[in-house]
TrEMBL record:
The keyword Repeat applies. Coiled coil: none annotated. It comes from uncultured Rubrobacteraceae bacterium. Pfam families: HTH_11, PRD, PTS_EIIA_2. SUPFAM superfamilies: Phoshotransferase/anion transport protein, PTS system IIB component-like, PTS-regulatory domain, PRD, Winged helix' DNA-binding domain. This is Uncharacterized protein. One of its GO terms (biological process) is phosphoenolpyruvate-dependent sugar phosphotransferase system.
Amino acid sequence: MGLTIREIRLIEVLLRHPEGLTADDLADRLGVSARTVHRDLQPAGEFLASHDLTLVRQAGRGINVEGPDSARTGALEAAEKMRSEALTPEERRVSLLGMLLGSDEPIKLRALASRSKASIGTVGRDLDEAEEWLAAYGLSLVRKRGYGVQVTGAEDDRRQAMSGLILQDLDEAVFLSGDSAETADPVSAGLMGMIDGGRLRKAKALTREAVGRLPYAIADEAFVSLSVHVALMIERLLRGGEIGMDGEVLRRLRETPEYANAGELAGAIGEAFKLEVPEEEVAYLTRHLRGTKLRQDEELDRYFEGSDLEIASRVKALIHHVSEQTGVALAGDSSLYTGLLAHIERAIHRLRENMRISNPLLSEIKEDYPALFDLVDRGMEKIFVGDEIPEEETAFVAMHFGAALDRGQGNFPNSVLVICPSGIGSSKILASRLERSFPQIRRLNHASLFDLERLDAKDFDLVVSTVPLQIPNDSYVQVKPLLSEEEVGRIRDHLRGKLLGERPVNRAVSESLEVFGGGQEKLRQMAEATQLIAELVDDVTVERHEARGSIPEAVRLMCASLAERGLVSDPKSLENSLLARMELGGIGIPETTLALFHARDDTVTRPAFSLHDFDVPLELEGMDGAPMRVRRTLLMVAPLDISTVALEAISEISVAMVEQPSERETFENGSEAQVVAVLQNIFARYLRDKLL
């Protein structure tokens, strides 16, 4: 008879525990829910009956198997044989990696072969592949005769490998569904030997509470990844594995907004599992909170109040690059700008912290959009000098541009709800395809699987999802993010039936994304940008200082100048912010004698831009990581609570540094009048793009 791996494992657990187990006990051992256990008992009972055994369920005693020992032994052997035959070579290798990563002690080769239900020769070949896979995470595989096989390496690298193994095959939709414990089969998902099922469910609940306290929403896939990291942290702490962290990295993470959220989560973990959570583990949680992908919704603009000016300028430069290469005006697409800013800021953090991200659509994007992928890849290399951008990140960025290039090809008459757990990029590309294919769509709402619990599908003319939903099949259409023609046809049929059979609905849910409309709001934003530009140009100065090559002294002089002009209330606070920003990476502009000092501080009264010449060159690090000598510095500062519009406008200055050699030359050697003229040109282009 045909049984799933999960059902076979249930049979094995029951046969190995003649005393019986409750449904909750079985759920914890198998990493599924009690409801799933009850559902799997029927096929398990049929299998046991075929071996002259009886599955008995008794209130108070639980579930057990009755029958002669010989029959029990025969059934167990049959189940084990079925399980070994059910595993594909890839599943066997995943299972092997799970066993090795989950053990801190060496495992004998014969034991690995026995657990894998494979020959020693087969396991030896699997270990060759495992060694290569582990090396990508900085881990080594020790193989010694008489000693066994053991994974060695740093705790952080081990956790990265464990999470990578788990997440590569994890069914996110099932993980996020109401039957939350049924993540995926533990063998194929790489869970075996690494995370206890009960602890995984508790970690998921604690993570959900922590995410609810964040000031921004995260993508469903980010929640899944974060839950797995939290579960791994708990599991490893219980086994004595603690993260080591450099003191400077620890100090930097302490200063981030997410550190307080991580501290609350660590406290809840300590209380739930009776653990002492070291500060390094709080920083570990902080790092993963900061690395989460954001979800596009109405709260995203508020998140940008903390965005870095340099990253904002690089995003603008990337948009300029793609616009020039494609001939499509993208500079005025605020949805593209905010989506890229959300993703790239988190991507830069992941790169600096050596964190990996998975992109299940990578191969599909490279195959279906090769030209766009290559174009974005070249732009990323040009603008993010010195950073090795992995293809997974480039593919996500390409999805944002794909959505922007597709956008605007249709009208929007009706209301649509899009459920897409993969985050901003895939959600947007699906939305854009829908907009292009169905001109009757007027408003698009984006929601996660969590949001679906509080929404009513009847409030929308169309519900489109990239994953199966726990609602009637005739109330939504399941598609892929890269919408196919066949799927377009199915949606047309669905819409036709809706339009013929239903009256317009009362749309009770506020829209989280409107692609067109909002003319009055756009005018308000234009007025804000124009006012900001006028103030920036009026405040521009070129000053000379007699600093003696000391960077702290140079920073002090620049901040004192701003204070004298009433642009900063506490120059010392701004000094600290500027110096702290320098610690994050080089600020010198390669192939020039310029450096861009920039920071945001709550003592800055309004955005300001100024130039400062020094008699003695300053020696500092360039944006490409190379040392350089600087004679003129550009100082760009802004308040912490700067709006998205203001941030976008001021970042145009640094975009010009990258994109316009002639303007860069003026910034390097020009007079105050020449600099003002260049700024006027820069902002004129910006306003023209916004009006188009």
